[in-house]
Design brief:
CATH class of the largest domain: Alpha Beta
Order of helices and strands: EEEEEEEEEEEEHEEEHEHHHH
Bound molecules: zinc ion
Structural class: alpha+beta
Distance between the termini: 82 Å
Radius of gyration: 24 Å
CATH architecture of the largest domain: 3-Layer(aba) Sandwich
Mean pLDDT: 85
Amino acid sequence: MNTKLSLTLLMIAVAARAEDVGQPVTFAARASASFSVTAFGAGPRALFDSGDSDPVPEPWDTVLIQGFLPDPGVSFEAARAGSARPDWIPLEVHRFPNGRFWARARAAIGPGPLRLRALDAGVSRDHAVDIYSVEAFVAGAEAPGAAVPPARGPQNPDAKRPFVYPRSAWKALPPTQPYISDPMPWRITLHHSDGRYTRTLQESLDEVRFIQDFHIHGRGWIDIGYHFAVDPLGNIIEGRPEGTLGAHTLGNNVGNVGIVLLGDYHPPVNDLPTAPELAAVTALGRYLVARYGIRPDELKGHRDYMATACPGDRAYAKLPVLRRALAAAPAPPAPDLTRARRAADAIFGFVPASFDARASK
Ligand SMILES: [Zn+2]
């Protein structure tokens, strides 16, 4: 059988893009890769070889990649780089019908760069594969960390939450273990998904379902790590339930509400935060500020806590205006002035007009 394979490799230049856990792996300072495949027939042929990665500082036993794989007839292998005869380990691929995929391999723990390759496992058509990110890390449980909350502003238990598409809208799996309660958050962290920039609500729901699968089965977490996802259309989608401990900012998850923007807001992709998207984050943030007394300056980007590009330059640049919008939130209900009135009455023998003016607002 005649076979013909033409292969082009394109490594996309990009600054390091770290994820929500683990170490981002770069290849000649590039964190993502694309390769196009033109194939007729199938055979045991390499479609892509990353070559040795840049140094990976910490030891690792897990390789985790995610991206877009239009044709299921591609498999992946990883090896610890540097050996003349690499010990290739197959990655277990989880591919959704829409082409979103993640893949993982477990290896003996050790340091060193890694190498990644793709093989023809029955390619049926011309296509291009996008690897959005590669990570190497030691698999383990979620690491909540600990921190002391700062002083809070006033809290309003009756604050109204904007409409949030519930977990049932994206057919969420139940968590694999009971949640840990985290009932009084004092900070909000903005992320980007480093994934699809979705164009319809259905795409967004599918993407959130993909992220949950990636977090549970890829990262080994009990559920999707974020509490909320916001898409470019301005839809807000429920992730891990509010009031439970999240898994999105390694070592700083306690008291931390995780909001992820769907898309990749960092070079070279440079998705743009849309006006409806920012309005949705503002509405959600205002609710959280009012409900829990979170201070607006406690809205931060993932990169404020650790070395990561998340939430991407384009989204990170919006944080100052978002903080100002949170600070301009409608004033919480006026405090009960009854005691102040009584005190004023006792002192002045009447209630000053200014009390009435304040109380009536
Ligand atoms: Zn992040």
